[in-house]
Amino acid sequence: MKRNVLVIHTGGTISMMEDKDTGSVIPGRENPLSVQTSMVANLADVRVIEAFHLPSPHITTEHMHEIKRLIEAEYKNQEFDGVVITHGTDTLEETAYFLDLTISLPVSIVVTGAMRSSNEIGADGLYNLISSVRVAADPLSKNKGVLVVLNDEIHSAKNVTKTHTSNVSTFQSPQYGPIGIVTKRGILFHHQPTSSESYKVCDITKKVTLIKAYAGMDSSLLGAIKDLKFDGVVIEALGQGNLPPEAVPGIIELLNSRIPVVLVSRCFNGIAQDVYGYEGGGKQLKEKGVIFSNGLNGQKARIKLMVALSQTDDFQEMERIFKN
Ligand SMILES: NC(=O)C[C@H](N)C(=O)O
């Protein structure tokens, strides 16, 4: 029996065309993908909704929340087995992770995109859409959290990140690799996602910023964060989780003002740990109350802190949430 798959278009290069005169890639008047979606009709009973038609640098947490509400409302109206969200790749990992943290439906959820627009040579959009519908229609894809499918690979939303500005193999999971692959003969999962968690989020109202540490960083930028009335901050720290000593007073000022500071590493791979005991070292920062994230990158830790702040203002509870 054919499986039911809902496809939700949000925009991005997958639904854009290259203007042959100017060479620029722009959102077309109509979504070229809607026409092509008919080519997946043999794989499942596919229903298509165009939520919006945005380049993903224009996507905000409000849009992510709108996608969540749309999926939940559509499931209530007419159950489906899986849902595919087509999305620009620039912020795809944030939307995928937001949905991973906030949706708990018994369906497979797949997010996909493209690195080449629909009329470029070697366009990958239709191929990724077909792969994603196949994954969403496969019963094995359920209970694995939100999946990101591009270039024949299946990644978990928590671990995947965009690693290359233009290459079709851009989405990688540096810590763990893909959890599965799409082959001509079927979908193969070779391991389970590392963890699953879900939070009931009614609204995302808190303001969280993200900054990257650098050699010689002092406390001036951290002071500005407090003045700008942010509710939380994620800092991409040096190495295994350290900061220049001149930044420590700014961190302490934020913590004393009840503004949570979540720490990730600015390194491409590995996780932040409270190892070094010198001034500005991770051990000192953790003892002061900085929350160490469990392997997330900066942009995802920011999404998670926004979700955590919608659940609690207790630092110990936030620390527990970031241990997952
Ligand atoms: N490949 C893409 O989709 C990139 C595009 N700038 C976007 O994120 O909308």
UniProtKB/TrEMBL annotation:
PROSITE patterns: ASN_GLN_ASE_1 (PS00144), ASN_GLN_ASE_2 (PS00917), ASN_GLN_ASE_3 (PS51732). Residues 4-193 form the L-asparaginase N-terminal domain. It is an enzyme of class 3 (hydrolase). The keyword Hydrolase applies. Keywords: Hydrolase. The keyword Hydrolase applies. It catalyses: L-asparagine + H2O = L-aspartate + NH4(+). Residues 207-322 form the Asparaginase/glutaminase C-terminal domain. InterPro entries: AsnASE_II, Asp/glu_Ase-like_sf, Asparaginase/glutaminase-like, Asparaginase/glutaminase_AS1, Asparaginase/glutaminase_AS2, Asparaginase_C, L-asparaginase_C, L-asparaginase_N. Its EC number is 3.5.1.1. The active site is at T13, T89. Belongs to the asparaginase 1 family. This is asparaginase.
